[in-house]
User: Fold this.
Amino acid sequence: METIKNIEIYELGSPEEKSSPWSSTILILKLTSSDGRVGFGEAPTTMMTLPVKESMNEVARVFQGKNYFDIEKNLRDYYRNAFYVAKSVEETAALSAFEIASWDLIGKNLGSPIYNLLGGRFNEKIRGYANGWYSDCVSPEDFVSKAKSLVSRGYSAFKFDPFGSNYDKITVDGVKKAQEIVAQMRSSLGEGVDLLIECHGRFSPKYAIMAGKALEEYNPLFIEEPIHPELERFLPEFRARVDIPVALGERLLNKEDFARYISDGMVDVIQPDLTNSKGILEAKKIGAIAESFGISVAYHNAFGPVQTAATLNVDYTLPNFLIQESFEESWPSWKKNLFTGYSVENGTMALSGKPGLGIEVNEKLLENSKVSGMEPLGTEPPWVVSGTFKP
Ligand SMILES: O=C(O)C(=O)C[C@H](O)[C@H](O)CO
Ligand SMILES: [Mg+2]
Assistant:
């Protein structure tokens, strides 16, 4: 029986090269098995780096010495012991890292890419959309100029948050400014490009409807997290009043949450983040739940390279896959060079096809990028693309 022997947690970053404020550090898990194989996982950070890192130490108490093939049993074993915390984002994020690293070991043990163990390549091409590209963009011209440079590199879909510093409420001027940005993006880039509107869950319901209705005529592919996440009971009204598909899911933590949102008519496109919602197998199960309701999947992917590789392995296998988020174009070099094994070219994402996740680590960079703790908060919330939370 092959077991999990060594567990190492790396908090990585670079004081010189900041990444997106919410992921200027990443948490990488390295599992070494009794048969000498190495598997990598990743947990997200945002405002929770240290709690997630501590939760990984808690989860290690369950996974240490276990058979890494026993994905279902090991996660259930944690759940049965955790009692109070099994649905905290810190715990599900920590569990995700161990689950992803276990799959990396499984694929390497069997000599197979993970996607071939989950149903194979239903999708040959994975269309990516760019996020993170619009730092310091305030005017419509700013957004268009940066987007055009990515169009020239093959991207045909762009996610962006055009709402500046509006929060809870939005002013008439704020709606007008957002409308001008989206209108200019549409008129300059044409109908062949998909526009994905990010709200970051910033609005109260009525203001979300006001903002959403102002953007209908530009036919966005979807509008993401229009309403504060705790006010999800108003999403059916938003969907009835605004003729733009609603996307959400990065903050949902398990298949039960997604089943509830879908069956209660709250969402049109789901966006699970498999480093928040317990990893690869849960992501596949969530995708199947959505498929049974005719709902598409566009996995959230905003942190690091192990997350991208794990997500791509699931993307390949989903009949109801829609489009894949990528921040790679805006990553600093330390994050870009940490692993090799997948590509993001001309707006299309692809894995190497090597066993496991399909990626290889740069050991030297792994050792040399160790940091401790997030940088202090700035003048903007850490969840925005830098330089955009402006009136
Ligand atoms: O990528 C997205 O959809 C985001 O909303 C990015 C968020 O700012 C990030 O995930 C916060 O942790
Ligand atoms: Mg989002």
